[in-house]
Write a structure and sequence with these properties.
Blueprint lengths: L3 H5 L6 H26 L3 H18 L7 E2 L2 H14 L1 H20 L2 H5 L4 H17 L10 H16 L9 H16 L6 H4 L18 H33 L5 H17 L6 E2 L1 H9 L6 H16 L1 H4 L4 H15 L4 H7 L1 H18 L2 H25 L1
Helix pairs in contact: 2-3, 2-4, 2-14, 2-16, 3-12, 3-14, 4-5, 4-11, 5-11, 5-12, 7-16, 7-18, 7-19, 8-9, 8-16, 11-13, 11-19, 17-18, 18-19
Length: about 400
């Protein structure tokens, strides 16, 4: 039975305001939905479909109205190797597994365990994520053509300058629209989305590639499902903590994990990929004064409609513009607390941050960094405390 609190979350103070913010949020999610698809190694159509379904489901199953969830940089980076080495069917099964694990995490009160992750590991995690995201886009910028550099420069200028004039429409979206039109008119020597992936738009159908399950595939699917679940849960919990501070409210992170697990499960059944809460977009709807779940519901509906309305345009987007969008996201991913934490305890904090980053960059696995970084933190903390007690 639905609680009165949950039902109240569907009652907006001003419905028109929440609907408009939902459309603006959808526009803000469009560039990332397309760009993160390429990070994961899937078609942009899958990225848009995944974003729309996740937003639709999370508006119903999420713990609170402020959380924006979609395919993210962290989950996409973990998903990329399974697509590259095993194909899309393995990813869909791993995403299904990811959803089950997220639900289990929530039922087992994973938030208590996540509280044990020290800030220094979180800082190392975010910094390594920024580096991986940045380096993943260099191939779309360098050694292609002179016009590619021109479009990269123009894209950066638009992304950085437009917020000085307006914040109503996201600057990455403006860059995509303006430079796609320029490319359509001038036909420069650059790479487009359609050069890397054909965009096929089909009505989603319930489908799970169970034929890909066998003795050899189960281990790989479980491994990647667990890794994606860990990364998604960490990113979502960090976002939830930030939203708690901004909105001056408390949220149930375990219920959020369950809600996101359900959204991930349903998305995988329709051929989509998993995601996690997004800090920037969640912060955006809090600052805009959203009062109901109507906003995230409208976002999901608008993105689903956009998938069909803009399907012919997606393939014409220059890859260099998407690369600059992701590079910009990577630069904002770096944790601003890095300098202050290292200055406060250069050896102890600095070592943990560097080791966490090194593990992630060496293994190309964000979950490894969280697990081994946390273990290293408590090891080095024990050593420091032992030396202090001896003296």
């Amino acid at each position: 039975m639905m609680s009165h609190k949950y039902l109240r979350q569907w009652q907006a103070k001003y419905y028109s305001n929440d609907i408009i913010i939902g459309i603006l949020l959808a526009l803000a999610l469009l560039p990332g939905a397309i760009a993160f698809s390429f990070i994961a190694g899937v078609s942009p159509a899958i990225g848009l479909l995944s974003t729309s379904i996740i937003m639709l489901v999370i508006s119903i199953t999420g713990n609170r109205r402020f959380m924006v969830t979609a395919p993210s940089s962290g989950v996409s980076l973990v998903a990329a190797p399974i697509v590259a080495h095993h194909g899309l069917n393995y990813l869909l099964l791993a995403t299904f597994t990811m959803g089950i694990i997220q639900i289990i995490f929530g039922l087992c009160h994973i938030n208590k365990l996540l509280d044990l992750i020290p800030n220094t590991v979180v800082i190392g995690f975010m910094n390594a994520l920024g580096i991986l995201l940045f380096t993943s886009q260099l191939s779309n910028v360098f050694f292609i053509s002179t016009m590619t550099y021109v479009f990269v420069g123009m894209s950066f200028l638009i992304i950085w300058l437009m917020p000085k004039f307006t914040r109503i429409v996201p600057s990455p979206l403006i860059a995509i629209i303006v430079l796609t039109l320029c490319a359509w008119y001038f036909h420069p020597d650059i790479k487009y989305v359609e050069d890397l992936s054909k965009v096929h738009i089909l009505l989603p159908k319930l489908f799970l590639p169970l034929h890909a399950l066998n003795i050899h595939s189960i281990g790989t699917i479980l491994f990647y499902g667990l890794m994606m679940a860990i990364v998604a849960t960490v990113q979502t919990t960090l976002t939830a903590r930030l939203i708690d501070e901004l909105s001056q409210t408390n949220s149930n992170k375990n219920k959020e994990s369950i809600g996101q697990g359900i959204a991930t499960l349903i998305t995988s059944l329709f051929g989509g990929i998993g995601g996690s809460a997004l800090v920037g977009q969640s912060r955006f709807i809090v600052s805009m004064g959203v009062t109901s779940r109507i906003t995230t519901l409208v976002t999901g509906v608008f993105l689903f409609v956009s998938l069909f309305a803009f399907s012919n345009i997606i393939g014409k987007i220059p890859m260099s513009v998407l690369a600059t969008v992701l590079i910009t996201i990577s630069l904002t991913t770096f944790d601003r607390r890095t300098k202050s934490y290292i200055q406060s305890a250069p050896i102890k904090n600095g070592t943990v941050i560097i080791v966490t980053m090194a593990i992630i960059l060496a293994s190309n696995n964000l979950a490894y960094g969280v697990l081994f970084g946390t273990a290293f933190y408590y090891t080095i903390n024990y050593i420091f405390e032992t030396k202090r007690s001896d003296t």
